[in-house]
Amino acid sequence: VGAVKSLMTDDYVKSSDISFSYCTLSKEAESIVENGSQEYRVFSALVEKEGGMSMPDLQAAVGKDVAKIGMGNCMKQKWIKKDGPNLVALKTKDEVSDETQATLKTLTDAAGSTDVLDDKTMQGLKRRKLVSLVTRKSLKVTKGDSYAPVRVKKAADLTKEMLENGSWKTTTFKPYNFLTLGEKVGGGYLHPLLKVRAEFRKILFEMGFHEMPTNKWVESSFWNFDSLFQPQSHPARDAHDTFFIKEPAKTVSVPEDYYERVKAMHEVGGAGSIGYRYDFQREEAFKNLLRTHTTAISSQMLYKLANQEGGFKPARYFSIDRVFRNETMDATHLCEFHQVEGLVADYNLSLGDLIGTIETFFNKIGITQLRFKPAFNPYTEPSMEVFGYHPILKKWTEIGNSGMFRPEMLQPMGLPENVRVIAW
Q: Is the whole-model pTM more than 0.70?
């Protein structure tokens, strides 16, 4: 069929469908043609036995399967009836004929042609599963307008070689449509994640935020953990939670004066805190890693904000970029994901400012029902988890984490004492 269709495309041949249906007999039908139908054999056995026969005797005479099928059909046609324990014939042999056998013989003599039987009779045979309808399809193939004994493949393109050797003069080409327009050139499409990112960036720009430079994925443990007042013994700093870099394994330098202030805050405390009271390790602080959160950039931006020329000025920053965790991958976890982070640094900010900022952002992206739940984070106090109501799933889903950066984090940076930083 495939070869014929291929030849038809070049008009070498023409084709028309031919369909022929016929019936085939089942093994049961073949047995009926040879021995008679079950109902006629049961009727014949009862006619020959005066007074009828019991069911066990009938089964012994004609067979269990024949008796089972034949008795039911005889009852339907009112050839027999039940008289006590026996089955007796209601008609004589002259009054009954084996129509099923005769019909099947007629069908066999006609080589299975369906034309010799009416629809009702055919349906009856199909219902008893005595015949199956088979349709045989074939093709009538004739010569086409471009017929040739040998097929010559038409060329689709005029090549340099054809022009050089002159073969284009004798080559058969596929027909060209010089009026058709070329296929529209696509300009590419944004990934769904990038579409969401673009929408979030637009909203945050509208809210007066500036984007932080987050194109550096490798950070030192100092900026990723220590500057955030996260102890060096914290479980998140273990190799089973964080991807550490083998080469180069250590950072070159950090601001030394800032390093000493962070170290002192961890060891002895400050800003009303007693610190963590442990021996702060320089080797641990200088380890390189794939950043586990974009807060590593936030800490650097706050340090620059505190030490810029002209002193501290209020600012709003955000970032949307990749972070990496040494997670076991499953349906809801990957080793890398995108994190949306924002912070506001200003004088005398409160938890109300944080809640208002978060509500404004989520309202702009369509999440209007929010709840806030107290939580714990190593570098924010107070801290809150943010939950949004999903109208389709009919449940509250955690959509963010937030808090106010701790004084133990902000004081070593050199920020004024009454500056507060809210973040999520």
A: no
Which two tokens mark 179?
């009026």
What is the tens place of the pLDDT at every residue in 316-365?
999 999 999 888 888 888 898 888 999 999 999 999 999 999 999 999 99
Question: Residue type at 317?
Answer: Y
- Residue 311 structure tokens: 């002193």
Report the residue count for the chain.
424
Which pLDDT tens digit goes with each residue over 153-191? 888 888 999 999 999 898 888 888 888 888 888 778 888
Contact 130, 105 (CB under 8 A): no
Query: In this predicted model, what pLDDT tens digit does every residue of 90-102 receive, in sequence order?
Result: 888 888 888 888 8
HEC states along the chain?
CHHHHHHHHCCCEEEEEEEEEEEEECHHHHHHHHHCCHHHHHHHHHHHCCCCEEHHHHHHHHCHHHHHHHHHHHHHCCCEEEECCEEEECCCHHHCCCHHHHHHHHHHHCCCCHHHCCHHHHHHHHHCCCEEEEEEEEEEEEECCCCCCCCCCCECCCCHHHHHHCHHHCCCECCCCCCCCCCCCCCCCCCHHHHHHHHHHHHHHHCCCEECCCCCCEEEHHHHCHHHCCCCCCHHHCCCCCCECCCCCECCCCCHHHHHHHHHHHHCCECCECCCCCCCCHHHHCEEEECCCCHHHHHHHHHHHHCCCCCCCCEEEEEEEEEECCCCCECCECCEEEEEEEEEEEECCCHHHHHHHHHHHHHHCCCCCEEEEEEEECCEEEEEEEEEEECCCCEEEEEEEEEEECHHHHHHHCCCCCEEEEEC
Strands 53-54 and 288-290: unpaired
The pLDDT averaged over each successive group of 10 residues in the chain (424 residues) is 83 86 88 88 85 85 87 88 86 86 88 84 87 88 85 85 91 84 81 90 94 92 93 82 91 93 93 92 93 92 92 93 88 87 94 94 92 92 94 92 94 93 94
